Fold this sequence. Notes:
The chain is mainly beta.
Amino acid sequence: xxxxxxxxxxxxxxxxxxxxxxxxxxxxxxxxxxxxxxxxxxxxxxxxxxxxxxxxxxxxxxxxxxxxxxxxxxxxxxxxxxxxxxxxxxxxxxxxxxxxxxxxxxxxxxxxxxxxxxxxxxxxxxxxxxxxxxxxxxxxxxxxxxxxxxxxxxxxxxxxxxxxxxxxxxxxxxxxxxxxxxxxxxxxxxxxxxxxxxxxxxxxxxxxxxxxxxxxxxxxxxxxxxxxxxxxxxxxxxxxxxxxxxxxxxxxxxxxxxxxxxxxxxxxxxxxxxxxxxxxxxxxxxxxxxxxxxxxxxxxxxxxxxxxxxxxxxxxxxxxxxxxxxxxxxxxxxxxxxxxxxxxxxxxxxxxxxxxxxxxxxxxxxxxxxxxxxxxxxxxxxxxxxxxxxxxxxxxxxxxxxxxxxxxxxxxxxxxxxxxxxxxxxxxxxxxxxxxxxxxxxxxxxxxxxxxxxxxxxxxxxxxxxxxxxxxxxxxxxxxxxxxxxxxxxxxxxxxxxxxx
Length: 501
């Protein structure tokens, strides 16, 4: 039943209750001099400075056009010679459905129009219910307001006091004198946020990339903020909780920041956050997305690479694509030269006709200047890796002891080596892995092959006792091989692991 969709509201009388004479009509905003600070994590700070005429003593002042999602517990009102007695936020907004729900138990007027003659008939009706449909008592009969195609209007005698045409905060203040003065209303509101969006044009032949950065504002507060001085804060005032237990998945996308930078950007900061003020006042309309440019850098040195990440002892039935990765720097010299707020980088390349084509996108976190960055733009078509667990078998204690050696390098350059005295387990295993890397491109490529899971809790003493080319230990849990694969060729890499299990 869609009875409420047929209701047309006619106001027979103005709203009752105390209404300030300074409230402008609905076509005009009641907001004053606005300053809006927007954070990344769906939060904004609004400072609204309004000139009001206050009487001496106690009075109720109304502030229409605040955020419809204002966090009332964060409200402060400051001004010379005033004190706050009480504040109320009227968040129940005027709508046909809200009017009907508030009219339960009240009497309204139904106006029906005869479609054949155009004649109108009026009846007084008492609203009994408005839950999923409207139930009315008209004289001695009970009637449901139906969606039967007949023109029906509803006339309400008044607007309930707590039903407002726009979000309104009312504050009871105590003023030490009468007169006009500025009052500053400050509050937090959710549903307003911003993020950075980047457009990158990669020239693979020149190993260069052009990058443009855009700030994208989104306002879903239910209120427009007109002609506001706007400040953006790169950083979230509340942080997400990290994953407590890491999950090892095959060929995971790599982290975007490979090495955190140590250079300071020239941008304004407050605490641990960077500030991005918009150069001009702007209107942040409700249900609107707005973009403002903040970065434009040409010919940043950039290289393409390939990466594959394998979970512990993962064996694939068929070749899997390596990740295509673009590597560049945000350093002052030979880089973007700026701190980069979190956002999404969308990468384009020109085809043989010179037209830019979209080739992938990757998110980046808040990135300090001077960082080494790697963007995973997608899965490579021609570069594949197939990991295979060739054999896993139990080994003897003597075989384990043969690799159970340590080496200590002293400050004077001398070395001490030997065997460990304590066995960590009574069972020991050896696994042989083969990784087949293939390249169908007409140029040689280098694939960074990561093997993770070496430091899982079940066996914290995993060793590589044999490998067909040297690996680089990134951590106790992970190693990487930098494998060169010839053009239109393939390479087999093998490694033998020993673990207590």
